């Protein structure tokens, strides 16, 4: 197996163009598991860890641009205030070792329906920046996932960054697993309440072939919330929001849970996160 070690972003894009079958490796917390268990035997790996640009983040107008190689630990430590929903999700990923190595870019690259970074990115309306020697394009998170572990990433493309506008409001994330740490989500849910734009954003994980948004639930809640007075959310509104979130999912029965349990759990997470987020509006 060849091991390609670009040291600049341009070299990395050139390597991917010349070797589209080569598998990029960032933190390696997904790739190494696949190699160790012989589930994958690519002809080449492209090590992205020396590409400094991937580990950088900064503001671009009113957006935050976060390099694909920023690990969860730094999302929590450096971006916890600006991206609280993603930071909450990052705290639930694996263990300290996994959070030191694992990256949001790697989570996107794997495109697992259970990836914990995906619901907060969907809820926040993030865009994924993809690049190749042909140029750069921005794909809304809701269009990035096309099937279980499949995304719109072309063979010659790399994930450069994700871009998101920090929310003027509140963000929440909740995940159900069979224990508190080192657990793949049975289901997960992220919520964004943006008081300035009067927008509701949602993200559902582990309850459909891809991570997805509950758009009917978003539209319903945005119209029902009393954004002006911040009056408590009526019980019937919270219940209908929860019902619409559960209805958006298309879960399956598997070793981690049944479809019926996942639907029920999602409605509970939707109600809970709504209560927390509405109570914590900035
Ligand atoms: C013990 C353990 C616990 C875990 N717990 C969780 C958890 O709780 N929640 C969760 O969501 N995940 C979990 N994971 C999975 C994994 O840690 C995450 O998916 C992590 O985000 C992967 O990031 P990485 O940088 O290690 O990716 P890598 O393993 O380096 O790469 C993952 C995929 O993304 C591709 N890739 C990486 N970077 C790029 C790029 N810039 N452009 C294009 N493609 C790229 C790779 O080719 C590969 O297909 C766990 C893994 C382990 C081993």
From TrEMBL:
SUPFAM superfamilies: CO dehydrogenase flavoprotein C-terminal domain-like, FAD-binding/transporter-associated domain-like. It comes from the Bacteria. Keywords: FAD, Flavoprotein, Oxidoreductase. GO terms for molecular function: FAD binding; oxidoreductase activity. InterPro entries: CO_DH_flav_C, CO_DH_flav_C_dom_sf, Diverse_Substr_Oxidored, FAD-bd_PCMH, FAD-bd_PCMH-like_sf, FAD-bd_PCMH_sub1, FAD-bd_PCMH_sub2, Mopterin_DH_FAD-bd. Residues 1-169 form the FAD-binding PCMH-type domain. Gene3D superfamilies: 3.30.465.10, CO dehydrogenase flavoprotein, C-terminal domain, Uridine Diphospho-n-acetylenolpyruvylglucosamine Reductase, domain 2. Pfam families: CO_deh_flav_C (PF03450), FAD_binding_5 (PF00941). Residues 97-116 are annotated as: Disordered. This is Carbon-monoxide dehydrogenase medium subunit. It comes from Phytohabitans houttuyneae.
């Amino acid at each position: 197996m060849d091991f390609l070690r670009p040291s600049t972003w341009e070299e990395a894009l050139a390597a991917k163009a010349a070797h589209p079958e080569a598998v990029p490796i960032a933190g390696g917390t997904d790739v190494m598991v696949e190699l160790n268990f012989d589930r994958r035997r690519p002809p080449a790996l492209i090590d992205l860890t020396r590409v400094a640009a991937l580990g950088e983040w900064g503001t671009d107008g009113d957006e935050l641009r976060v390099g694909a190689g920023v690990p969860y630990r730094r999302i929590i430590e450096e971006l916890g205030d600006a991206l609280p929903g993603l930071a909450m999700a990052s705290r639930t990923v694996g263990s300290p070792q996994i959070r030191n190595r694992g990256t949001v870019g790697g989570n996107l690259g794997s495109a697992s329906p259970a990836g914990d970074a995906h619901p907060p990115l969907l809820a926040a309306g993030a865009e994924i920046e993809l690049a190749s020697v042909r140029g750069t394009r921005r794909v809304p998170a809701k269009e990035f996932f096309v099937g279980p572990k499949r995304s719109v990433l072309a063979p010659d493309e790399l994930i450069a960054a994700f871009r998101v506008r920090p929310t003027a409001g509140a963000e929440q994330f909740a995940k159900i697993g069979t224990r508190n740490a080192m657990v793949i989500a049975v289901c997960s849910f992220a919520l964004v309440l943006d008081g300035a734009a009067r927008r509701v954003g949602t993200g559902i994980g582990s309850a459909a072939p891809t991570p997805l948004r509950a758009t009917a639930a978003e539209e319903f809640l945005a119209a029902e919330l009393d954004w002006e007075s911040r009056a408590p959310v009526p019980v019937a509104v919270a219940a209908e929001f929860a019902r619409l979130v559960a209805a958006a999912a298309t879960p399956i029965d598997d070793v981690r849970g049944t479809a019926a349990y996942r639907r029920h759990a999602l409605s509970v997470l939707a109600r809970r996160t709504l209560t927390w987020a509405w109570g914590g509006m900035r």
